[in-house]
Write a structure and sequence with these properties.
With 403 residues, the chain is mostly helical. The chain has 16 helices and four strands. Helix content is 52%, strand content 3%. It is globular, with a radius of gyration of 22 Å.
Amino acid sequence: MYFKKTFIALTIVLGLLITISTSKADGIDINRATGQCYAHTSLSSIKLIDYDKIWLDPTLDYKYSLEKDTKNVNQDSAWLKTVWKFHDIYRQSLEKCAKGETDICKKIVEHTEYLASGDKMLKNKYWNKDGHDFYESTLFNNHSISHILMAYGVAIQQIDVDADTHQMIGESFKKAVKSNKRTYCGSCKTKINNHHLSSARAFALYGTIFDDDKAVATARSLLNKYYKTMTKEGALRFEAMRGHRALYYTGKTITIIISILNILEDGGEQAWTEQETAWVIKAVDFYIDASNDHMKIYKWAKQKRHNNKGDAKVQQMTHTQQGWVRPFVQRFESIHPELVAKILKQKDVRRYLQKDARKSGDQWSAIDSKCFFEFNTEYWNTNKSGKDATIPVKTKWGTTHIY
């Protein structure tokens, strides 16, 4: 009888070990998906063969030209346009999965397993660390790694994945993350920038999903090094030097730092310490002040580092640089209402919130923040049409608000 009970007990234990069903929130906690989740496409629109030369043995055909960028010339290559398309589809797929569409969750796991089974999955083939190809390929590959792992992390919160498959995926992504690592920054006094943070997020996602403490430590180390680049005013020194795009790079950098902190937090790691919270608040406060008065960032922007065209006194303000708004406001609306009020009154932020109903997130967030970071602050101002901004309206994407 003793041996029979022992055998039964061992059978139950082994049965529990053959699947991975995570209890911690890997990637992003699916319980955050309480907002405006209007995803309208999914991985069903991607055939496995479509990944060839894009994410399997990726071949960079993109040469960034600052002069063309200044003239607003669309210089996205065929490869890059496909990468953007894949990112968008993965953001929408993980949203559907988070809301309980388990068929999409299964599709995410299927695609992730297929990608991971290839020995050239998101492999960086450019090793001249001072060269354009290395600089661009690592950035885009790390963004792609983050989108896939963010989706996979959501999927394994919803469905079981057998342990062997999970291990194989982890081993493959470990190689990909290391292949595209941007951990070296010399003294970090002149080299570290948003590209390193893109690598840090890939390490954070891999580390939290596959329980790799060393990878988490690498992400944490890069964050700590980057924190040191803030000026006493709150400017992010190496983004603020970027001429007329200083605020553009600053906003994207704030977005990815908040993204990393939320990934670490949801993954059960230390994040949002008192010092980190103060750092983010100071960065955002300066960003909003400089958005209202571009001369506040001019003393750094006038250096025109890597952006020698354009007028540094007139900053470029885009949609993608405001991805930090929703997660920041949700976290701080009750404890820093005055700062949140200042943020929501800022004209570029308001324009972002108005247009965001037609967007599906961005690569620096790796999610659609209006789905995962709903906030409760009432809008006391009316929009341009004069309508009450708190009244829900119908769009083809669903019911939303005019901000």
